[in-house]
Specification:
Blueprint (H helix, E strand, L loop, with lengths): L7 E2 L5 E2 L3 E3 L15 H10 L5 E8 L19 H12 L4 E7 L16 E2 L14 E2 L2 H21 L3 E6 L4 H6 L14 H4 L1 H13 L7 E6 L11 H13 L4 E4 L18 H9 L5 E4 L5 H7 L5 E4 L1 H5 L3 H6 L10 E2 L3 H4 L3 H9 L6 E3 L4
Parallel strand pairs: 3-4, 3-12, 4-5, 5-8, 6-7, 8-9, 9-10, 10-11, 11-12, 13-14
Antiparallel strand pairs: 1-2
Helix pairs in contact: 1-2, 2-3, 3-6, 7-8
């Protein structure tokens, strides 16, 4: 049997039917009010039907933490009924459902947040054209956001999710506190690499405290190993981060990589893949999820020699039956490019579909629409 088809058990007893993960992917398809939409439910149900673990797009934990238009929230109890429907959709055919929770920080579009003012660890703008300088959070505000992550976890439990993933990757607020580029604070949330880890550590502890009475509830953490900014997060910094994550007793660690085989974004002389370095440091102490251009079953099998679970994103948008075809020895039928004639069949919501076709090179395209 292929390794990707083998079951997996976490240390807390949660069992997965296989080693495949639905990666968290932004889809811009929630209601403008932050509620889960029917389009999302259909989209997720179709893609979670075969995977062992399904991770949602990121849900914002505070009103000033929005990162995308038409995202769903977990910052108010009024969202619990819709989140419950989402959890049920993901779990309908056996997948374990994980709610990814986050705060966008300085990456928030100004028109989505109060006073049109993004916030962050410090008043340092992202290095990108047209970026807005965020307002530095007061210490009391930082503590309130930590509490918000705990409340988001409570709501995830009430909604029936099997776990939460703390989104500490992709330049969002938790990463901003860890980064020497975006964190210039002088209070307890700033300073050297250990001081900059205070916010991530306290978020983890608050989330775990909120989940302490939930039976077999997973708490994972996602991070990006490096930043291109100067100064920015280095692989040496990430060694310290990984050590902290191991100390905090998480259920899994999820490394966010555009390409699974990436070595270093900062140093072209580095030859060791970042995922190999991280896996060596973890040394089997906690399950590791890898992601990044794992298109074929053979590539997933190769990745599973290093990581415990492999996440697919675009591959499951293109072909929701990816795993089913592997299970039934029809690997040669797996679609590797998006058929633009099949939006309805693939149940891809219009906002995500429009984003895909408007970004050249984001997805391999099979056909042009029929006229």
């Amino acid at each position: 049997m292929k390794q990707l088809l083998q079951p997996f058990q976490f240390q807390n007893g949660v069992e997965l039917s296989n080693r495949l993960v639905l990666a968290p992917m932004t889809h811009y398809s929630s209601e403008p009010t932050g509620e889960v939409s029917e389009h999302e439910l259909t989209y997720y149900r179709k893609r979670a039907k075969n995977v062992g673990l399904a991770i949602t797009a990121c849900a914002y934990v505070t009103e000033n933490g929005k990162g995308f238009p038409n995202a769903f929230g977990v910052n108010d109890d009024k969202f619990i009924p819709g989140l419950r429907q989402l959890a049920e959709s993901l779990k309908a055919e056996g997948a374990k459902a994980i709610l990814q929770i986050f705060h966008a920080g300085r990456m928030s579009p100004p028109d989505l947040v109060p006073q049109n003012q993004p916030v962050s660890a410090s008043a340092v703008a992202p290095v990108r054209e047209g970026a807005v300088t965020p307002r530095a959070l007061e210490t009391e505000e930082v503590e309130a956001i930590i509490e918000a992550f705990g409340e988001a976890t409570r709501r995830a439990i009430e909604a029936g999710f099997d776990g939460v993933e703390i989104h500490g990757a992709n330049t969002y607020l938790i990463q901003q506190f860890f980064s020497p580029h975006s964190n210039r604070r002088t209070d307890r949330f700033g300073g050297d690499v250990h001081g900059r880890l205070t916010f991530p550590r306290e978020v983890i502890r608050r989330v775990k405290d909120a989940a302490k009475d939930a039976e077999q509830f997973l708490v994972g953490y996602r991070f990006s190993p490096e930043e291109v900014e100067e100064p920015g997060i280095t692989l040496d910094d990430t060694d310290v981060l990984v050590d902290m994550l191991l100390e905090e007793g998480l259920d899994y660690i999820h490394v966010s990589l555009w390409n699974f085989h990436t070595a270093s974004m900062r140093d072209e002389n580095v030859r060791e893949r970042a995922i190999d370095r991280i896996a060596k440091r973890i040394n089997g102490a906690v399950p590791l999820i890898g992601v990044g251009q794992l298109h074929t079953p053979a590539q997933v099998e190769d990745a599973l020699q290093v990581v415990d679970l492999a996440a697919l994103g675009r591959e499951l948008i293109i072909d929701p039956d990816w795993l089913e075809k592997v299970e039934s020895d029809r690997e040669d039928e797996i679609e590797t490019a998006l058929d633009l004639n099949k939006q309805a069949e693939l149940a891809v919501p219009a906002p995500l579909w429009n984003a895909i076709i408007s970004r050249a090179g984001w997805f391999p395209i099979k056909d042009q629409p029929k006229t």
